[in-house]
# Entry
Amino acid sequence: MKLRFPLLTTGALLFLTGSAVSQDTPDPKPSVELPKITYPDPVTEAQKEAVGKHREGSQNLAGEQDELAADVQDLIEEQTDEKLIALLEEVEEVMAEVIDSLDETNTGGPTIAAETEIIEKIFEAAKQRSQQSGGT
# Structure
């Protein structure tokens, strides 16, 4: 299964430079500690090949996430509103955690939850920015 979160994040980042947001921010979800799942070592050639593809895909996503984090840094430099800057800095911090997880081929629940957190924070930043520019 190939994750597409960087594409969602890219869309959300592009939205920051776009028009007003008309929806409310989603309610924050309570923190849930997910158990660590330990998978058996691959035995068959097909399993070994699948592990290799997973590692390659995860590391490619880490690279894409790193590029998006650079875009967030650029956005931070362009902003003047302290609240918006703080939100974008939080996004950047969570992105760094995701990059580390993806580099380690950790694509499980905690990484997916962190990607979701990034999207929610970008949504909040977009909403904050639209309020600054007179949007609703």
Residues 1-10+45-136 form one domain. Confidence is low (pLDDT under 50) at residues 17-23. The chain has one domain: 1-10+45-136. The chain is about 70% helix and 0% strand.
